[in-house]
Amino acid sequence: MWEGKAAVSLDDWIAEELERAPEPTPEQLGSLKAIFDSASIPQDVSP
């Protein structure tokens, strides 16, 4: 019976998923870098 608590914490589950994930290829890393490099972050975020 479920008692309202997870058998594994969210942090532990995420860590396990990251361990099992394949390493990104250089092409994938290049694509991610291009996305981050092209993203513009607003400098003034005052309302």
Summarize the helix and strand pattern as letters: HH
Mean of all residue-level pLDDT scores: 81
Structural class: mainly alpha
Q: Determine the number of helices (DSSP H or I, runs of at least 4 residues).
A: 2
Helix content: 40-55%
Shape category = flat
By DSSP, the count of extended strands is 0
Main β sheet profile? none
Percent of residues in β-strands: under 5%
Stretches where pLDDT is under 50 for at least 5 consecutive residues are none
- Distance between the amino and carboxyl termini: 49 Å
User: What is the gyration radius calculated from CA atoms?
Assistant: 19 Å
Short description, anyone?
It contains two helices and no strands. The protein has 47 residues and is an all-alpha fold.
Question: Main traits of this protein?
Answer:
single chain; flat
Question: Could you walk me through the main structural features you see in this protein, from its secondary elements to its overall organization?
Answer:
With 47 residues, the chain is mostly helical. It has 2 helices and no strands. The longest helix has 13 residues, at 26-38. The mean pLDDT is 81.
List the helices and strands and how they pair.
Layout: H1 10-20, H2 26-38
